[in-house]
Amino acid sequence: AYELTAERCPYPLHLGVTEAGTERMGIIKSAIGIGSLLQRGIGDTIRVSLTADPVREVPAGFDILRALDLAPDGPQLVSCPTCGRTRIDLIRIAGEVEERLRSSGCRKAIKVAVMGCAVNGPGEAREADIGIAGGDGVGLIFRKGEILRRVPEAELVDELMKEIAQL
User: Which residues form the IspG C-terminal domain (predicted)?
Assistant: First the structure.
């Protein structure tokens, strides 16, 4: 319906998924519904509606835009799935980096990678502007796949945030 309307109507189109559901499923449904249209160049405004605290709707909308490279500002976090090569508490560290980026108010349009191993991490995340990769008690900080330095695992997130501040 939106495709036909976009072809025939000169007016701005608003996108949203009505009754999307609880926070988790609502974000998934909204990302698919809104994102698939935006990817085809359809839509001018969006609204994410969740059965959750309404404050969660705006960040979800920005996350959808960032995932499509349509948001002009704000960091995008990428991280690898855990596997047998993971040498750090990747789930905790990725969550901490995500929270620190959010709470810092960082508006830089950067891609930040959190990778589980130092062997493949920097290469797999070479498109990231900045990132970290875990090791056995020591991690790497890298930029565009190039290793900058090694730091103790306990200091990895703090050092990453310092690097981000300097970008």
Answer: 76-165
